[in-house]
């Protein structure tokens, strides 16, 4: 019989990271929406620059798959409860997509490869998860609120956000590398 020891420092670090990732994933999109209102583009900046995705990727890459999944699934839900965004029709798909990002980026924490490569793999995986969720909703449940074409539309519309993630996340990961010792 084996015993499981719980590293209190790692547990605290992961709990704090989860809370900070969720809070940042709620606040950051609101800042983009405010900038959109000021600039006259409305809520479009959020769907173009994908600000909610950044904290989820960082959480997964820093603290592992459990933190990544929780941050990814809970962030859109709490954001919706507070602000009504994302739209109700998109909420479950964003929850699956962001949980996919968090899971895959978290699973790649200890894999020896550049952060950029981990990010691209997680981005593709999250979009595949979203696509599968949309396909199940459309074909399995006859959901008319979303269309299969929305998969490609969201990728095309989110290209600036993907590029922003490519620029910011490797830098953030590099700057926070010293913190990883607290997660083990």
Radius of gyration: 17 Å
Specify the overall morphology: globular
* Biggest beta sheet attributes: none
Topology order in helix (H) and strand (E) letters: HHHHHHHH
Tell me the number of strands: 0
Q: Summarize the amount of helix as a percent range.
A: over 70%
- Helix count, per DSSP? 8
Please state the average pLDDT score.
90
Oligomeric grouping of the chains = single chain
| Range of strand content | under 5%
Q: By helix and strand content, what is the structural category?
A: mainly alpha
Parts with pLDDT < 50 across at least 5 consecutive residues: none
Give the terminus-to-terminus CA distance: 23 Å
Description:
The protein has helices at residues 8-39, 44-49, 53-63, 65-83, 91-107, 115-141, 149-157, 159-175. The chain is an all-alpha fold and 184 residues long. Helix 3 packs antiparallel against helix 4 (65-83), helix 4 (65-83) packs antiparallel against helix 5 and helix 5 (91-107) runs antiparallel to helix 6 (115-141). The protein is globular.
């Amino acid at each position: 019989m084996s015993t499981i020891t719980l590293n209190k420092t790692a547990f605290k670090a992961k709990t704090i990271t989860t809370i900070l990732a969720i809070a940042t994933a709620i606040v950051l999109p609101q800042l983009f929406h405010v900038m959109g209102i000021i600039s006259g583009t409305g809520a479009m900046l959020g769907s173009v620059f994908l600000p909610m995705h950044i904290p989820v990727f960082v959480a997964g890459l820093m603290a592992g798959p459990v933190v990544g999944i929780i941050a990814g699934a809970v962030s859109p839900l709490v954001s919706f409860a507070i602000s009504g965004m994302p739209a109700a029709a998109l909420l479950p798909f964003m929850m699956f997509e962001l949980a996919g990002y968090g899971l895959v980026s978290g699973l790649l924490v200890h894999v020896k490869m550049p952060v950029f490569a981990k990010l691209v793999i997680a981005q593709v995986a999250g979009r595949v998860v979203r696509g599968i969720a949309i396909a199940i909703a459309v074909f399995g449940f006859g959901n008319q609120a979303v269309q299969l074409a929305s998969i490609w539309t969201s990728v095309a519309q989110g290209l600036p956000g993907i590029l922003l993630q490519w620029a910011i996340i490797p830098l953030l990961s590099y700057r926070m590398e010293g913190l990883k010792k607290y997660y083990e």
